[in-house]
Amino acid sequence: MTRLKQAGIMALGLVVAVLMVVLGLWQANTARTHGQAATQERAAMPAVALPDGATGDAVTELYGRQVSVTGEYLPELQYYVGNKPPLRIVTAFRTQSGQVVPIVRGQVGDGQTPADAPIGLVQQTGLLLPSEKDFHGQLGDDLPEPVIPTVKLERLAQEWPTPLLNGFISLSEADSQAQSMQVATVVLPEGEGSERNAGYALQWWVFAAFALVMCGVWARQLGRNAKRQAARAAALKARSQSES
After folding, report:
1. DSSP class of 167
2. Domain edges within the chain
3. Which secondary-structure segment (H or E) carries 104?
């Protein structure tokens, strides 16, 4: 009878755990789809002017938004970006306030030469993005120079004039085409709340593991209690037999 009860407890725990795992998967999928939708909606919003001399939160709050800047390119400060073709082209851009903004003007295929940056005062529009992560792989062979694997602002800050914006702009398709370049592929930052929703999914999986553990403890304790009761009953029986 005790083993049957233990089996029932574990079966109940397994059902609850499976339900919680399913809920976690649903929450994770919701986080992903809602995050992507929010990110794409944010990127499609009308462009806003990047505030003159913007730093800190004034910049980070605009990540993933279309922004516009006015100033002049510094064509002598330019890199190919990537570990294999197609390669993006990032060029320094000095705004009217004197701030230097890295701008990805577009990308070029294998063996292609990037078009020259516009000369003189221009207005440019594109997605504002955060610094990219380090690349720890190996660069491809025969890449043009100078080349860097990612748009890592800490690297650019060591070589380009200051003040350097704590973000970079990847030009819109229209602005890239105006420079006879192919628009660069971008990776949009995660939508607001995606990390929180992913945390909710993780909580469901933690609850599932907790349910299994607690049901195991409960079933084990039930077995121990049954053994104690059996031992106590055997002791009482032996005592009554000895007294008789």
Report:
1. S
2. 1-44+193-217, 65-178
3. strand 100-108
